[in-house]
Structure formats: structure tokens, C-alpha cells
Amino acid sequence: MKGRLLPISAFLVFMIPSVMHAQEQKVFSGDPGRFREELINFMGQNLDQNQKINLDAFISRWDSAAFSRANMSLILDLSTQLVGRNMRAIPHFSEFLETLNTFIESKRDDSFLSYWLTGMSEMLFDPGVTNQSIISYVHNTSLLIKENILINTGTVKWKAKETDFKFVHDTIFKIVINNATLTCYYQKDSTEIYEASGEYYPDHQIFRGTKGIVTWEKAGFTRSDIYAELGKYTLDVTKNSFTVDSALLFHSSYFKQPVYGVLSDQATISANKEKSTYPRFQTYTRQFEIENFYRDINFKGGLAFEGANTKVTGTMQDPAEILIFRKDTLFMKLISTEFIFSRSGLASQEVSARMYVGKDSIFHSNLGLSYSSLNRQVNLFRTSNPISNSPYYDSFHRLDMYFEYLTWNMDSPEVQMTRARGAALGQAVFESESFFNADYFLQLMGLDNYHPLSRIKQFSDYYYSETFPVSEFAKWLNKPEEVVTGLCIDMANKGFVFFDRTSGEITVKKKLKDYIDSYAKRKDYDVLRILSETKAPVDNAILNLKDLKLTVNGVAGVFLSDSQRVAIYPYERKLTIDKNRGFEFDGVVQAGLFTFYGHKFRFSYDTFKIHLQNIDSIRMAVETDKKDQYGNPLIEDIGNLIQLTEAELYIDDPNNKSGLKSRKQYPIVNTVNYSYIFYDNIPGLEGIYDKKDFYFKIDPFIYENIDHYTYEDINLSGEFYGGKILKPMRQYVI
Question: Cα dihedral sign for 656, 659, 665, 668?
Fold first, then answer.
């Protein structure tokens, strides 16, 4: 049995394709005379009204020889191919018949249909072309002939307006379009290419252009303001966007001659023209320099035009620059990979900012920028970028400065350093570049087995550079890069390194090495840290550009030496910082057992002393023989108040600001002229002894080690004036 079944099985295998082929032939015989009836039978009875109208119209035109013999032959072949592709009467054949009717109704040259049918036949023979692609080809051709629509996907529609077109078939089928307005519709928006010429390939849904013009009218500009000429380009008409790699931009406001670059456009929804972000054009060159684009503002870099906005662009290696001038002198330099220009001003989310202060500068590596051309206001502010929380470095005043917002009106001689916009309270810190705190140093280590500052310093030495990639540092530490990146961001925010997230590199600051050396007691340091707390509308600090003095508000007090117990408490909570951390103030100086009250006090950082120019009064205290529970002498105020003098307060040796070395003679107070004790306010005797007649005139004096003083140490010499009762006499007062 098995031997007899094998030939039958083989016979069936060979016969099945023949039978199927015979069945295909039975649908359409290929005979023009029989095609009418064969088509009616194939289409069946379940047609809606429009489908029946299409069928009847086609049959009528077939019978009336509306199609040429050559095209009839192609239609017969295509019908067989469609059946072979398992195309159904509805919707496939119905779409095919509708498109054939559309060709006849358009009264176009017979060659149009011939080229189209030939192209369709080639698609049907290509196994890589899906049935859906063929149906789209048929449907979109009908739309093109009827409404000049190249494609309608349901979400994206491309239309060729104000043009005629022709069908061509040389090696492949294509549609030649000349001087058309190509419009892409997407939802409620559209974008256009004017004077477009090229070839449309409906089987691939690609338009290959040879020329065209794109304007910025949807962004609020006229065609004469700005437009781009397109050379060779390719459009995927299934999408609502396109990019042209080589376009020529005409923009007389920026360029005397047109420039080449990359154009991209997209049909997007934008109710406000000023907020439109398309079309976009990026110049090839990034070396443009334009002076006074806004008054006193120049820029260098590439140019990108994005809808209503203009961008100055650069790269990480060659960033864009904004140069801001004050009185014809460069005052501020801003660096970024992107600045956004508009009619109202400019902005950037990430800038490196340097403000020139004499021969020095104030620098920050990562801030947000806004500039209003209406009021000429420059604003620098912290952003969500973690690096933005790092301090400004002021090399003139030699401070690390932490504050939220910097604002400057270009017509004003003042720069405000203040609270964040909308905030009621402003908090800022102005910290000496030589500041050190041992407890803080230990806190930085946390629970790790190594100190982060030491590891950064060690790797910098290993790498032979103060600038190095975080990735290499992570490998050296044998830790995940994201963990080490977080560490570097934290150290940048604390002022120990500069961190460039774009390049992924950090640069070690002098402060990091100083902190390590200070902890090891290899280097002197200070404890100068000025805290500012203000309420709106008071700014934390104001920089005067005329004299470069920095006035800080909201200062409750400042410690100058914890070892010598010297601190200042300014009146009106305000002091004015000069070059290299020197500052002026009116207020109170607490130095050991002496308290000075007065005006025009000036602290000199270099000499580490305070010049007390106008002392209103000096209140003194002494150590008594009585002890507290810890064995320390109790302090007692002296009743006499010394008034009206000038003095120098030497806080410590200028090379021992940290107090690491024992200098027992400090603090030292040295009055440089006479001082006075008056008796007009003695309790119970107020007003009896007029200060014009009764007073003690004290000779200039020097007291050392005013941290520790007893009654025996105080021995002030001078003259007592007793009015008309007593002649002036030399005495000592305690």
C-alpha cells in the first residue's frame, strides 16, 4: 500500500498549485470581451450605493473604450495580479475601480494612466511590497488627482497646491511636481514649502525635492524678513516633519550674504506666534560675531533660528559667548552651548558667568540667565541643575558667595545679590576663601573609610592634573561612576571643586588643598564667615560698581577670631566689604573683656586689625578673684565708661589668624589719642556734673591680652578736670 500511495501523494503535491492557478484564471480570463461579466460576478451583490456607482461607471467606460487598448491590457493583467495577492472585492477592487474612474474624469493624457498602471504592476510583482502599501498607493493616487493630496494617513496630510503635475515612468514610476506649494497638515496646524519642485514616489511615499522655499511667517515674520532656499532634499510624507541638510538662509538683520546650514520644520500646534519653535535653521559655521545686537551686548557663536526665537549656539569645545559692556569696557562674559534670543530679550538654562571687577572677577560655572531688552535687566539665578548650588567665587573680595539671585540693570552702578524671585526671605553666605572649620572637615568624611577631599587630591596628583574626568576618578576609586558623580557634585556645591557636567570633568580649587593643609596644621586659616538674612524688599548684598565695595545687609554678627574671642555686631545689621576681605561698619566690637561702640570702624584682613576711628564709648570688664563652678574667674563690669577716642585693635598676628600658635599678648588695644570719662550720668546725680566742666582726660594707652584683665592691670593715667572747684590734676583711674 505504501508503495502505491507515494506516486499519488506526489501527484497531488504537483497538482494543487495547478488547480489553484486554474482557479485564479477562472476569476479573470484575460479576455477584454469577457472582463465585463467576470468583474460583475467577482464584485458580487453586497455593494453599497457608492461602490455600485463606481462599478457601473467603470463598466460604462470599459464598454465605451474610454481606456486605450494598452491600458485595458494593463488593467486585465493587474486584476489577475490583485486576485493572486488575495485582494478582495471590497475594499480593494472597489478602491482600484474608483481610482481608474478618477483618471478618466480628470481628462489627463492617456500616458498618465499608463505610467501609473505600470508602476502598480511592478509593486505587485515585488514580494517586499505589502498589500497595504498597494492599497495606499491606489487610494493616494485618487486623492492626488481629485484634490492634489499626496497622502492622507488620517493624522498627517500632504497637499501639493498651485501646481500641475505629470506621471512619468522611466525606470520606475514617479510623479513630477513643479513650483508647487507643498503643505503638511497635522491636527490643527500646518507648514508649507513654497515653489517646491521635485519627484514624488508614491510607492515609497517619498518626495525628492530639487528646490523650495520655507518662510517664518507662522512665527510672526514676513517673507522678506527671513526665508530659506532649499536645494536637494527628501521628504517622508508619512511624517509631519522634515530636515534639509543643506539650505541657504536669507536674513538681512543678521547677514549681508545668505548662509548655509541645516533646516528643519514641523507642523505643530502653536496658538501664539511668539511661542512658535518652528521652522528651525542652524548655521554650519559657529564663528559669527555681531556687535550691539542689543545695546552694549555682543555675541560670538553659531546662529540657530527656531520659530520666533534666535539662538546663539556653540559646542562644548567651542561654546557661544555673550559679551556685555559697561561704559565701553567688557563687564560680563557669559559662556554656553546655547543662548535663546527673542524680541523681548535673551535667556539660557546653563551659562558659565564671569563678571569683571577691576582686574579680578566674580565667577560661577553653572547658572540660569535671563535678560530683558525692555528694561536692560540682566538676571543670573540658580536652576534645577545640582551644580547650580555651588558658590560664586569673588577673586576681588576673595570670597565664596552663596546667594540665590543676581540682578543688574545695565544703566545702574549697582549689582544686587538677593533672594529668589517670589521669596519673602533672603539668605546668603559670604565666606573667606581661607575659611576652615575642623568639625566641618570631619563631617565631610561621614561614615566613609576615606576623606573625599584627600582622595580627590591624591587622584589629582596621580593624574598629574588639577582637571580630570570623573569617569577616570571612578575607576581609580573602583566605585560606580554615578556614585562618584554625586560625590563630585556635592564637593562642587561646597566650593572645593569646579564641576563641568557637559564635559564630565572636575577642576580642583585651591580651597580643597588649603582645607587639607589647614586640618594638618600646615597652613594658617581664618574663621571669617558672614551670614546674611533679610526680608523683602531688602537685598542680601549690593555691589557698587563705582568703588567696587560690597554692602552686605542682614548681618547679625561676625566672628573674626574664635581663639581670641573677637566678634563684631554692626548697627543696622550692615557692613561694607572692600578688596581682600577688609570691611567697614558702624557698630559694636567685642574683643575679650573690652567692648567698643562707635562708627567708621574698619577691619583690615591683611594686618588682621580693626581701626576704630570714631569710638563713642569703651566698656571694660575684669576678672575677679571669685570663681565659677568650673574654676574660671567670674567677670565683673567696670562702672566707668571711656568715651570719644580712636584706637587700633590688633586681633592676632597677621600670620596666625587661626590662632594655632599661642600669642598671649593678643588681642591688643592701642588708643591713638586722648579719651574721656564723663560724670554727667552718675545714677542719682544726673546732670549735676556737666560734661563740659567735669571729666577725666585719659592719656593714650596700650593694653595687651585683653582676654584676661584684673583690676590691678587697669591703670589709666591722665588729668582730672573738676570745673571751677579744682584745678586740673594728674591722676590714675581704675
Answer: positive
